[in-house]
Amino acid sequence: MRIAVISAPAQPGSIPDYVNALAKGMASMGHQVDILDAWTENGIRLPAYKYIAVSAEAVSLFGGKMPDALPKMLSAGSGLIGIKGAAFLKKTGPFTTKALGNLMRAMEKEGMLVNWSEIILNAPQAESLGKRIGA
Fold this sequence. Notes:
alpha/beta, Rossmann fold, 4 helices, 31% helix, globular
């Protein structure tokens, strides 16, 4: 299966280690995986994927707000209606569950079917979660 893993860290920069581990787990199960950075990619390629996994971090510890780059990327990929997806959020503070809800709402707003959501604690856990995609 062709999978896009969207990395949306709180601040622009390099791809976090847990996102690479998530993609590694998916690839180990035979999937074709591409990591897309929400801060640098425009999202036009998203409709070409069969499954989209979004891995994000909340911008603040208390608000649960998503990075501004994420909704821009998802809305640019018009044609996401009906595409299955997973929402993964890096645990950052006491309102992580609220932030995960905000992430899923952002994905569903674009018409995606979010069929899985998890809170990521570390890279080894992310890799084991990646191995469960499509299983």
